Amino acid sequence: MINGVIFDMDGLMFDTERVFFDTWDYAGEKIGVGKAGYMVIKTLGMSLSMTRDLWHEEFGDQYDEVNFRRYSKEFLAGYYEKNRVPVKLGLYELLTFLSGNGYKMCVASSSPEWEVRHHLEDAGVAHYFAAIVCGDMVENGKPNAEIYLKACDAIRERPRNCMALEDSQSGILSAFRAGCKAVMIPDLWEADEKTESMLYAKAKSLDEVVGILKNSK
């Protein structure tokens, strides 16, 4: 019995990961390592600490994290001043269905709390979620299970009674390790055979999750 649905954010609810290609290109050039947008693919869904390790591995001492983050925020502030967060296909339809059918909803995102709240409020969907658990609220981010275990606790449901919606390998691993039913909606990455074996289901867009839930009863 599925009673709760837990949402990843970047690449799942919002098309923010494509925005980050331009953001990291800009910030990378500012700190002198060149266009770094390709690192979006390398770090999909990862915790802040794992992401930091990969950046240092890629650029060594050239990677100036403080200024990179400063320039990233500078770019994003300018972008979101002129543009709304790009919403993924089927998000509103799925949220309306879940709300109307009594499902509990939570966000489990590797992004910091301020960013998650900004995007939810900007898209007008914050009121759907009973709780949010963000990357800066846990000690061990994705692919560790901690963020999904906390999300299940936040909506007072056992992991086996929760569906986790994800688009990245790290996110799917996190949900699977927590004992949730992982459903993948691919964005920038396609699952390999090992990841496919962890999935409860797969959908092309968020609105297709409605059918998966109806068939799971």
Gross morphology:
globular
Query: Which class do the helix and strand fractions yield?
Result: alpha/beta
Based on CA atoms alone, the radius of gyration comes out at 17 Å
> Strand arrangement, largest sheet?
3-2-1-4-5-6
Number of domains: 2
Order of helices and strands: EHHHHHEHEHEHEHEH
What is the helix tally? 10
Low-confidence stretches: none
Q: Percentage of helical residues? A: 40-55%
The biggest sheet amounts to: 6 strands, parallel
CATH-level-2 architecture of the largest domain: 3-Layer(aba) Sandwich
Secondary structure elements and pairings:
Blueprint: E1 4-7, H1 16-31, H2 39-42, H3 48-59, H4 65-82, H5 91-100, E2 104-109, H6 113-122, E3 131-134, H7 146-154, E4 162-166, H8 169-178, E5 181-184, H9 193-196, E6 201-202, H10 209-216
Parallel strand pairs: 1-2, 1-4, 2-3, 4-5, 5-6
Helix pairs in contact: 1-4
Describe the structure.
The chain has two domains: 4-15 and 87-216, HAD superfamily/HAD-like (Rossmann fold); 16-82. 47% of the residues lie in helices and 12% in strands. The protein has ten helices and six strands; from the N terminus they run E-H-H-H-H-H-E-H-E-H-E-H-E-H-E-H. The chain has helices spanning 16-31, 39-42, 48-59, 65-82, 91-100, 113-122, 146-154, 169-178, 193-196, 209-216; strands at 4-7, 104-109, 131-134, 162-166, 181-184, 201-202. Helix 6 (113-122) links the parallel strand 2 (104-109) and strand 3 (131-134). Helix 1 (16-31) crosses helix 4. It starts with a strand and ends with a helix.
